[in-house]
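User: structure tokens for this one?
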Amino acid sequence: MREWLPLVDEYLHELLRNEGRGDHTYLQCPTCVTNSLPTVAGPAKIRCKECAPRLLCEACTISRHVDNPWHRMERWTGHAFEGISLADLGLVIQLGHADRSVCSNPRPARADFCVIDVSGQHRANVLFCGCEHAGMSGTPSQQLHRHRLYPATDTEPNTALTYRVLEHYHIQSLQGKMSMFDYYQSLLRLTDNTGTTYLQDRYKVFMRVVSQWRFLKRLKRAGRGHDVSGVNGTRFGELAVHCPTCPRPGVNLPKGWDIVPEDRRYLYQLTIAMDACFRLKRRAVSNEQKDPILGSGWGYFVEDVRYREVLAAYADQEEMSTCTGLSAIDHANTKYHKGYAATGVGAVVCARHEFMLANGVGDMQKGEKYVNMDYVFASSMSHHRLVRKHVSYDIACQWSKGLKDRLAEFPEHVRIEVPDDTDYSIPKLHYHSHKQIDHSKHSMNYRPGAGRTDGEGIERRWWWIQPIATSTKMMGPGQRQGVLEDQWGYANWRKYVIIAWTLRDRLRVALREQAEHMELFVALTASLKRKHIKRWTAAVVAWEKDSTLEDPYMLISDGPTESDVRRKLAEEEQVASAVPGYIAQHEVSVLGFITMGLDIEDQQYRLQQDTKKTLPSDLPVLLERRTALRRRIQKFRDLQAVYMPATLPLLSQVPQARTDVEHIESVRLGLPSDIATAHRAVVCSDDVIKLELRLREAQCRDSLQDVRNKLHTLDHLYKYKRANVRNQGPNTRAQAELAQQRVRRDRAAARYRRARQARLNLEGPGAWELEFQVLRDEDVRGVGDDEPQSVLQGHRQSASSGVGEGRKKMSWIWNASDKSGDQAHVESLRIEWLKARARALRWQEETELLPEEMRRVLAAMESEASHWETCAAQVRTDVSEEIQEGLKAYALDQMLIFRAMRDTFISVCYKQVIAAGGGEG
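Assistant:
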């Protein structure tokens, strides 16, 4: 850019030079002169804005633009150029005569016939064929189609859109999320941006034709034009783009997939994620009579009529809530349902690859009710009845209870069987918002067969679709569904296109991580007593087979933990809400408000630490995390306006509390403990203050215990490394594991400090400080670390150089321990060993899942190619030869596309699969 700055004047002059004739100052038309007709050469006055900047006469301009009638012209007046249309120059478009023969009975369209193209709006002189060839030429609308013009109506069309503008807007709306209004307005501005030219209003026509175009494209790509049953023979979900990696019997599963041993069944299970999005609202505008749904139930949405019939029987059903008494945070806006025909959508996606599933979307009427999510789940799973399922849902722990009984009450067309071996998990980012007791069975980190699936893919889908939420909110039912169906189809197709690189990169990471975690796990196992390993292994294996057994991942504690306090507070809220006359202030309780603030604090700290060591290659991930955090803080501010309304004016005066900043991780939240003592009693209720105080006390206890656990683990790893690790490779990996444990230790220490400071702000000094003292850096050391200074200097004392037993000084954190002696050490190691085992096994599963998914992709692509090859060979006697030729050409084109994609997939993934130990298959 700096090199260009000195050339600004030169570039500006060149732009202005082109406003005149430039090099083309000749008076006679060069085309006429070239054709040896200098005596009759016309004046060179017409210039096309889209072709080469030569000036031609009117006759030559028309002859050159018979096949380009939508170019924009300008005429030289002697001093400047002025706009003029080809229609004004005399260009006539004769339809129905592809060979350009003369029509003996042309039928002119109206004089104001309007054509909309990428170049803008045009008036056109159009002649329809009415001669003896009219039977072959077709109806007026067919004649327009055969000139690649889409008629606005089937009877006496007076407006048409070029196929080019429809294709152009289609991809702009899908990739750029551009609204129809903005695109149409840009076409008008291209035509005239001064307001001095009359332009016909064709916006409603544009909207209607675009909706039809979207629908026709989906039908075409699904092969409905090749099926003898026609469009009306379309089956439910047939227009959806299917995930090539998801297991589909008869398409991409090998023979014998259903009789593999139990420990291999996860390779052929379908992992899905469910959630609701309350941004995709729709106002109660228009209706199905004025704006009908095109192909209801043929794509991603459930069939509308039958869905509403089922919902009508459950009108009084209450919303679901989480196991902590906390309503899903996204429900914050659902009380404002008046005036909305839909308050959002519930959906089911492929959790591992984020494909929207066929018939896996349904409108929500008021909140996230069982019936809505049950119906959407059953509808989507009706296409996957045979395969084993693993369901991820942010309230799976509650939703899964009674699911079989609820589905049994549905009509037969949507009733499905849910096998007892179906797994239910909570997405990883949502998991920590739930109580911990008896919830390890819902953790994707501990669930056998889950691989490295995080279950959060559906949240990324909501973020991707969010830019069009504003425009779809004001659409009628048919147009809104058409737009969303089209967007999700495009999203699925783009994921299909890049699936080779996605799986290759995942496998590359999985192989590396699996090797590291397995080696660390083996080393940790070798360092522990065999009797402990034997007992722990037996317990966790038994629990994995029967999750009703005692949870092995729970650390036994003598004091009330934070999860205990949260549960107790939730129970108290339930009792209070049962009192007659009780009115809830919000769907999200005050407990949910405070716990959300505590969770955001933890998220902010992690992001702050990760920001310090972020590499340029990791910047996109960091920005995505900041965006997610910003959304959570904005939701927190909404709840703050309900439970602490007087706080907002105070926070508005504090620069550090602003949310419109880049580093959102540094924003002050404004919890009661964050408010100055002089203002706290005024802006915060006693209930809110007391609730945070109880949570902070438990947070202090949990965090301090977590610090002790991590110190136990570090002490053990230090000793093992010193006694057993040799050579550079193992030493590097051991150092990496130690570094990871130090990060976790520091995170727990920081959490304790935040909790203690908050409690001090709320309660002031007191006897409680004897148990929860100030935690200095030198206090964070193990029982055997006798020199605080050695901790500050970052190294440990050797056994020979340490002080005598009588002079050892133990950190105060061990005096306050819930457990003492060897039992605490063993318990800490048990939890760390179980987690290390789970990490190693999940990465091992991932290295086996990904090659199998790659094999399924190849099988799915070959299945698609074979399907289109069959279509190409099909001979239709019920259509014309021209249509038959088009059917065959399109089918062959699709076959070649899928074969080329298969070849590309092999070239991208082959080496990585071989590295993973895969074979030629």
